[in-house]
Amino acid sequence: MPMVTPTPSPPAAAPAAAHDPAATPSAQSAPAEGGVVALVAVLGALTAVAPLATDMYVPGFPAMGEALGVSSSAVQLTMTAFLAGLVVGQLLFGPLSDGLGRRRLLMGGIAGFILFSLVCAAAPNIGVLTAARFLQGMAGAAGTVLARAVLTDRFQGADLPRYVAVLSQIMGVAPIAAPVLGGAVLTVSTWRAVFAVLAVTGGLLLLAVLRKVPESLPPERRHGGGMTSTFRAMGALFARRAFMGYVLVLALAAAALFAYISGSSFVFENLHDVSSTTYSLIFATNAAGMLVAGAVFSRLVARGVRLNTLLSTGVGVAVLGALAQVLLVLTVGETLAGTWAALFVTVGGIGMVFPAAMSIGQALGRATPGAASALLGGTQFLFGALASPLVGVFGEDSSLPLALIMLSAAGAAALALVGLARPWRAEGEPGAPTSRK
């Protein structure tokens, strides 16, 4: 991905204008190119923490249940608790950071993540573990939501979607890589070591933030009025039709991706009788397709292609891939090559939807980047968490439930795009005026 030094920005807008959703506050004085690389690298690592913490301990579920003397459903509840904390944390940290600044909340969130990771590692029973996982998710949400807010503070124009694409690619690939990393830890230790590794990771991130992530929101650009004003800004974003359209497009695309992550192993290993090694290869290939889609997005943005055009293309590709899988099952039947190809196309489309929808949403919410990031990220994980168990609920003896769930999510994203976001209006494009509607 080409790294470019952001163009110097005009002086910051007056504090009164900061409350205007149509206003575009300028970026902070940009660091040199090496500083940009370091900043984006740290923000990318912060973005990866939540999905890594979500899935790294999954391979240890059986051993965890045996060690704590509980059922598999009780163990799975610890993941639900983490995801709930992740949603709540984003909705809390994002808006608060618009009034208090990013850096203090970011460091406090990471410190909390370290603490509750250690509590998880030492948890004596399932009750303590579940409560600690909820708090770990809340604290870990700071890195996810504030990384995007810092990007929006620092960059604008065509630079913003390029760097958002990096974070989106990490967000898409990290859940796929997490079980593999967790499995590696479990080969040499117990499930408790996974949480110890997460604590160490948090410590390294805290040091990185101290050195490479300065405050990006100066006092003159912060929102006064305390928490009431802060959450009123979030309510204003809720009322904006276009913004919520892009929020729903992103959230529904995440639902399709999480359904794929949770259900694809049953489809390939149980239905098509592939080995775990072959399934890992299939999973890695599809993840690579998602990365390529993100790289293509970055390249096309650099060449001036409209974000809404790329978003519409990504949604269309995802719909076609999911529809192809449904039609294949209903006509030809279950085939390994057909299922693999259809899912590759669908996941590739999602890989373009993520950075496009996130970039446009952050641009439309630039007056309150923390609140915008909270709504974009919070709904993304909420819809993903709701979609994850659906494949198992509707049966695992056919790939049709997975295909139908992904098609429904992608189709609903297309409806949100056309009915609410209305991409032909070109809102959120670099240099384009934003609407309050």
UniProtKB/TrEMBL annotation:
Pfam families: MFS_1 (PF07690). CDD domains: MFS_MdfA_MDR_like (cd17320). It is a multi-pass membrane protein. Keywords: Cell membrane, Membrane, Transmembrane, Transmembrane helix, Transport. Its main location: membrane. Residues 1-13 have a biased composition (Pro residues). Residues 14-29 have a biased composition (Low complexity). Residues 1-29 are annotated as: Disordered. It is found in: Cell membrane. The chain crosses the membrane at residues 36-54, 74-93, 105-128, 134-151, 163-185, 191-210, 242-261, 281-302, 309-333, 339-360, 372-394, 400-421. InterPro entries: Efflux_drug-R_Bcr/CmlA (IPR004812), MFS (IPR011701), MFS_dom (IPR020846), MFS_trans_sf (IPR036259). PROSITE patterns: MFS (PS50850). Residues 37-426 form the Major facilitator superfamily (MFS) profile domain. Gene3D superfamilies: Multidrug resistance protein D (1.20.1720.10). Belongs to the major facilitator superfamily. Bcr/CmlA family. PANTHER family: MAJOR FACILITATOR SUPERFAMILY (PTHR23502), POLYAMINE TRANSPORTER 2-RELATED (PTHR23502:SF132). This is Major facilitator superfamily (MFS) profile domain-containing protein. It comes from Streptomyces graminofaciens.
